[in-house]
TrEMBL record:
Its cofactor is pyridoxal 5'-phosphate. This is Aspartate aminotransferase family protein. It comes from Sandarakinorhabdus glacialis. Belongs to the class-III pyridoxal-phosphate-dependent aminotransferase family. Transmembrane segments: none annotated. One of its GO terms (biological process) is biotin biosynthetic process. The keyword Repressor does not apply. It comes from the Bacteria. PANTHER family: ADENOSYLMETHIONINE-8-AMINO-7-OXONONANOATE AMINOTRANSFERASE, BETA-ALANINE--PYRUVATE AMINOTRANSFERASE. Keywords: Aminotransferase, Pyridoxal phosphate, Transferase. GO terms for molecular function: adenosylmethionine-8-amino-7-oxononanoate transaminase activity; pyridoxal phosphate binding.
Length: 441
């Protein structure tokens, strides 16, 4: 045993977990290095999901560990309300420099959910200071995931995440999702069919009035609801319609930023520039929690400039831990690693191998679709009669027991390995999946 298992498992109310099942059948992780986790019994688990889409440079990276250690000893905490510390400004400039267009004004939060709430609030504040305070509606998309804050679930499009928690933000509405198995199953990369789905935004403009809509938020590639790849031309069309009606376009890049699809952002890779980008996860390689929101200069200038006439705080928003020194240190070390090891380029270089490998599962038992983009893949299985999600959960558990960590969303298995993955490890993942699919009824 590397570590003793805890005695009272019920003390920890686990997030997004079937607590009763887990506590009867605990699966624990005790340590991690490179591409592997180790269990308390010393079993090696190949990380097919970069933790939770976040450990992009692989586990236990020395330079990040050292930066955190050093920072903790020098400045453990500093408020960023009316005060600052140097790393916050350095990191904002670094992150801003990696964003497309003029999205180089950066606000820090501590998670993807907080980044999303921050972005939505910035959108409302921006319109208000410009005298367009009627713009209060926020538009998301079916099957969108924007975290678990009240803002995020209002624009998110996952039923179970919403229905327990009341009506959400008034006036929020949703575009249709882009998942179209009938037309697009087994497409490699972006599907040719589906750009027209963005036109639903014109429908919402006609319904609500364009001057009531503050922002549209979408994941350029939806990860958490099962790897939904944007059809060719879809994001471009959304951009056009937003611009036409003065609506801010927010890309939620909590998963896609920092190399997941072969560039700093999906916006860069796909050539569509939004007005605001949210990010988290890969920004610190997940070693310390951090979220961030990058805004176009005009948004920052409008909010800080207009209110500055009255002198005082311009945006009544922030978190005690915004730009926490440990997170800033971890993020700077992470961005150095991405640059020094050219990990975004590495991930892009692996895409063709990755695509061919995962599509090799097309004949797998139960498989009804395979989707891929960057170093991400979704393998969709037919649901069991009357038990949607059961097959996905079983595959997830069996794979863990055979030594591979994947993510199950309903009956979709998502893969998103650290960007340091080797071709042989990709083969191992695909072989493990093929074996487990064959055994699963
Ligand atoms: C696109 C997107 N937005 C927001 C979030 C929420 O991030 P967090 O869990 O850090 O709050 C996630 C998490 O997976 C996500 O994928």
């Amino acid at each position: 045993m590397l570590q003793s298992p805890p005695n009272d498992l019920d003390a920890f109310w686990m997030p997004f977990t079937d607590n009763r099942y887990f506590k009867a059948n605990p699966r624990l992780l005790a340590s991690a290095r490179g591409m592997y986790y180790q269990t308390p019994e010393g079993r090696e688990i190949l990380d097919g999901t970069a933790g939770l889409w976040c450990v992009n440079a692989g586990h236990g990276r020395e330079s990040i560990v050292e930066a955190i250690r050093e920072q903790a000893g020098r400045l453990d905490f500093a408020p960023t309300f009316q005060l600052g510390h140097p790393l916050a400004f350095q990191l904002a400039a670094r992150v801003g420099g990696m964003m497309p267009g003029d999205l180089d004004r950066v606000f820090f939060a501590n998670s993807g959910s907080e980044a999303v709430d921050t972005a939505l609030k910035i959108a409302l504040a921006y319109h208000r200071v410009r005298g367009e305070g009627t713009r209060t509606r926020l538009i998301g998309r079916e099957r969108g995931y924007h975290g678990t804050g009240f803002g995020g679930i209002a624009v998110g499009g996952i039923g179970p995440n919403r229905r327990t928690f009341g009506p959400g933000l008034p006036g929020s509405d949703h575009l249709p999702h882009t998942h179209d198995l009938a037309r697009n199953a087994f497409t490699r990369g972006q599907a040719a069919h589906g750009a027209h789905l963005a036109d639903a935004l014109e429908g919402l403009v006609a319904l609500h009035g364009g001057d009531t809509i503050a922002a549209v938020i979408v994941e350029p590639m939806a990860g958490s609801t099962g790897v939904l790849v944007p059809p060719i031309g879809y994001l471009e069309r959304l951009r056009e319609i937003c611009t036409k009606h003065g609506i801010l376009l927010i890309f939620d890049e909590v998963i896609t930023a920092f190399g997941r699809i072969g560039a700093a952002t999906a916006a860069e890779r796909l050539g569509v520039t939004p007005d605001i980008i949210t990010m988290a996860k890969g920004i610190t390689n997940a070693a310390v929690p951090m979220g961030a929101v990058a805004c176009r200069r005009g948004i920052y200038d409008a909010v800080t400039g207009a209110m500055a006439q009255a002198a005082g705080i311009e945006l009544f928003h922030g978190y005690t831990y915004s730009a926490h020194p440990l997170a800033c240190a971890a993020a700077l070390a992470t961005l150095d690693l991405y640059r020094d090891e050219a990990l975004f380029e590495r991930s892009r270089g692996l895409e063709a191998y990755w695509e061919a490998a995962v599509h090799g599962l097309a004949e797998g038992r139960h498989v009804i679709d395979i989707r891929n983009m960057g170093l991400v893949a979704g393998i969709e299985m037919a649901p069991r009669e009357g038990a949607p999600g059961a097959r996905g959960m079983e595959v997830f558990r069996r794979l863990f027991d055979t030594g591979l960590l994947v993510r199950a969303t309903g009956d979709i298995i998502a893969l998103s390995p650290p960007l340091i993955v080797e071709e042989a490890q990709i083969d191992t993942m695909v072989a493990a999946l093929a074996g487990v699919l064959a055994e699963t009824v």
